[in-house]
Design brief:
Blueprint lengths: L1 H12 L5 E4 L1 H14 L10 E5 L26 H8 L3 E6 L33 H8 L5 E6 L5 H7 L2 E4 L19 E6 L2 H11 L29 E5 L9 H16 L3 E5 L7 H16 L18 H12 L2 H14 L5 H22 L4 E5 L15 H6 L5 H6 L3 E9 L2 E8 L5 H11 L1
Parallel strand pairs: 2-3, 2-4, 7-8, 7-9
Antiparallel strand pairs: 1-3, 4-6, 5-6, 5-10, 9-11, 10-11
Helix pairs in contact: 1-2, 8-10, 8-11
Bound molecules: glutamine.
Glutamine (GLN) binds next to loops.
Keywords: ATP-binding, Ligase, Nucleotide-binding, Protein biosynthesis
Protein name: Glutamyl-tRNA(Gln) amidotransferase subunit A
Catalytic activity: L-glutamyl-tRNA(Gln) + L-glutamine + ATP + H2O = L-glutaminyl-tRNA(Gln) + L-glutamate + ADP + phosphate + H(+)
């Protein structure tokens, strides 16, 4: 079966080090059962798919690339996994990420360094770097990722594939190991636009187990693929081609805008004036929520516990000190500080207010436009090791992807040319719950 071949290929050729765990036996058993049943009613039946290792999978180790969950075998499936199983998709294995999805290069994994599919000396991006490299290197046609500040779109851009983050509330987060609950969203990494829409058709929808999922009806996300984009009104914010964006990347995006014009769309320059506050706003909100979410890792309930502990406090302190990596500790400290009495008003509350200003910027542009475009990342993939010692430079990588998370908007990265042999991503941001327009324009551009 395709499953056998896929697993054999991963065993033999995971040259990018994308996978942490393979699901050999379960995947083969599922493929066999499907074969015997002889029913392939769902478009995903038999499709091998890779799963980012912060999405829980029953009976299959789920680590979030952290030592603290190194031996965690979940007793249940995430809602998205239940839905994929029911549609006959086959989870072939779990992919590497930055620990707890904190990072932009997958170098923060406690277990291995994943490589860019185009150049093994470069990072695959992050935090869904394993999922992106697995798809881009041809090991699987599709993978799930999670996107809190760009973690699907940035690695998709760095690896020249299609990455899609749905509207906040479109896909259940039940079973996604929480990083920042008001920003996290599960989405897809695929080679084609249509494959993404087919997977979203299966995983989208309200879930009683996640109160933030919307009651919104789920359309057929493939419905507008193939339709003309003539007359479409597209906005290109000045801020997205400004300072810090590599001029050669900006050139590719201008070329992409011209291509959209040649397909009958109009592309106008607009302004999103609060863009410059997005990164600091994000790091306060995301770290605050992370510091709260990560309290559950205490050495008692799950995973790793330090050895030779003397008392309860020792269990907590030593298990967390030894179990978490440096970036995770940095976020916990940052978040705990922002939320502490005396600093809450100056940091967390202020960030929440600026978040509203950023959201309002988008709402204003969407009064007159159907879609916003720009580069997904300021540069193409950087060299492994280049930014690990400089967290602030690493944080600036997400300057263009973070605003969509703060506003809860759907957004995608579509391959749009190359700079010095490395892929460039065209970023598309849509209106709330209007994933269909992104798919329509992305497919026209593809
Ligand atoms: N790179 C960003 C961060 O480190 C985004 C991560 C993500 O989207 N999960 O927080």
């Amino acid at each position: 079966t395709l499953t056998d071949e896929t697993l054999a290929a991963i065993h033999a050729h995971d040259d990018v080090d994308a996978f942490l765990a393979l699901n050999d036996d379960a995947a083969k058993a599922q493929a066999k059962a499907l074969d015997e049943a002889g029913t392939f009613a769902s478009p995903l039946a038999g499709l091998p798919i890779a799963i980012k290792d912060n999405i829980v999978t029953k009976g299959l180790t789920t680590t979030a690339s952290s030592k603290i969950l190194g031996n965690f075998v979940p007793p249940y499936d995430a809602t998205v996994i239940e839905k994929l199983n029911a549609a006959g998709a086959i989870n072939v294995g779990k992919t590497n990420l930055d620990e707890f999805a904190m990072g932009s290069s997958t170098e923060n994994s406690a277990f291995k360094v994943t490589k860019n599919a185009w150049d093994h000396t470069k990072v695959p991006g992050g935090s869904s770097g394993g999922s992106a490299a697995a798809v881009a290197s041809g090991l699987v046609p599709a993978a799930l990722g999670s996107d809190t500040g760009g973690s699907i779109r940035q690695p998709a851009a760095f690896n020249g594939i299609f990455g899609f983050k749905p509207t906040y509330g479109r896909v259940s987060r039940w079973g996604l190991i929480a990083f920042s609950s008001s920003l996290d969203q599960i989405g897809t990494l695929t080679r084609t636009v249509k494959d993404s829409a087919l997977v979203l058709n299966v995983i989208a929808g309200h879930d009683d187990k996640d109160a933030t999922t919307a009651e919104q009806p789920v359309p057929d996300f493939t419905a507008k693929i193939g339709q003309s984009i003539k007359g479409m009104k597209i906005a290109l914010p000045t801020e997205y081609l400004g300072e810090g964006v590599d001029p050669q990347v900006a050139d590719q995006i201008r070329k992409a805008a011209d291509q959209l014009r040649s397909l009958g769309a109009t592309v106008d320059e607009v302004s999103l004036p609060h863009t410059k506050y997005a990164v600091p706003t994000y790091y306060i909100i995301a770290s605050s929520e992370a510091s709260s979410n990560l309290q559950r890792f205490d050495g008692i309930r799950y995973g790793f516990r330090a050895e030779d502990v003397k008392n309860l406090k020792d269990v907590y302190v030593r298990s967390r000190s030894e179990g978490f990596g440096p970036e995770v500790k940095r976020r916990i400290m940052l978040g705990t500080f922002s939320l502490s009495a005396g600093f809450y008003d100056a940091y967390f509350k202020k960030a929440a207010q600026v978040r509203t200003l950023i959201t309002n910027d988008f709402a204003k542009v969407f009064e007159n436009y159907d879609l916003i475009i720009g580069p997904t990342t300021p540069t193409t993939a950087f060299t492994i090791g280049e930014k690990v010692t400089d967290p602030l430079t690493m944080y600036m990588n997400d300057i263009l992807t973070i605003p969509a998370n703060l506003a809860g908007l759907p957004a995608a990265s579509v391959p749009a040319g190359f700079v010095d042999g490395m892929p460039v991503g065209l970023h598309m941001i849509g209106k709330h719950f209007d994933e269909q327009t992104i798919y329509q324009v992305a497919a026209a551009f593809e």
